[in-house]
Amino acid sequence: MKLFVFVAFLAVLVTVVSAWTKEDHEIFDLVTALEVSEGKGTTFYSWLDVPSTATLVEINKAYRKKSMQLHPDKNPGVKGIHERFARLGVIATILKNSEERKRYDFFYKNGVPKWRGSGYYYARFRPGLGTVLVFLTILTSGLQYLVQTLNYKRDLMRIELAIRDARLAAWGPKMEPHQGKRKVKVNLGGGPRQDGDGNIVPGKMLDMVVEQDNVFILDPSGNLHLLDTSSATPAAISRTWFIELLISSIRKFSYSKENSRNDVDNEPSTPTVDRSDSPVSGASEGEEPRQAEYTAAVKAGGRRRKATRKR
């Protein structure tokens, strides 16, 4: 019944929101801007200083008087005077038109709706790509966390039910604990059914061992695993997709950086060549032969010059 009422309320709300027109949105903007500029609770009528039952003549007279007061030429240097003067003209146009005034009177009497439709807010506060991505990330992570919470509660119920059934099978209807271990079979759900031959097939059965207050799951290899509420995995923000992706990226980056550092440390060092006995100290290996040839040529040239002088 409550679900039906909620769905009906949503249907009515969607119908009302979809009925708001472009002109309605213009009125919403004017009402908001007027209250910001002139004060909370200011209406079209109160700003013109006329009653809501004012005639067209009274509205025209009030508009002329107000326009003289707010004219930019008479208010030089006043901040926001141009916006206020332009807003006055738009409001006066609405009140002079019978259909538009009738629409404004509806919101004047019933109040401007707080929720004006997603299209209204999106058109005025259009978010950028970054904002949309952040919103979607938060939304999907929140939904994933909600699913984790629901699954955790469901697992807790299943564990508590299995523990109760195991104790019931081991202790009997009076639920009086017995000394020692007792092996029992517990139905984990999916009650009895008929197979193709008409035979009754029990649901999924699990071997369990009850020892005093402790309940263990007996695996096929004969090992015992304690069953309690800690067996269920609680919800955690760290297991939402974005946080997991962030942690995984940081680990990969750290691992890659560590490998690069190890590769640098493991590179073989270049052997140092001792050139202290070389013909020319400080010369490289490739320069040594050329330097030797140059030295021999200089000496030979000196001998030839000496021989020429003696002659």
TrEMBL record:
Keyword line: Membrane, Signal, Transmembrane, Transmembrane helix
Domain annotation J: ranges: 43-108
Pfam families: DnaJ (PF00226)
Bias (Polar residues) ranges: 267-281
Region (Disordered): 257-311
GO annotations of cellular component type: endomembrane system
Residues making up the signal peptide according to the UniProt record: 1-19
Compartments in which it is found: Endomembrane system
Main subcellular location: membrane
SUPFAM superfamilies: Chaperone J-domain (SSF46565)
Domain of life: Eukaryota
Transmembrane segments annotated in the record for this chain: 128-147
Compositionally biased tracts (Basic residues): 301-311
Record keyword Transmembrane present: yes
Protein name: DnaJ-domain-containing protein
Membrane topology: Single-pass membrane protein
Keyword flag ATP-binding: no
Classification via InterPro entries: DnaJ_domain (IPR001623), DnaJ_domain_protein (IPR052606), J_dom_sf (IPR036869)
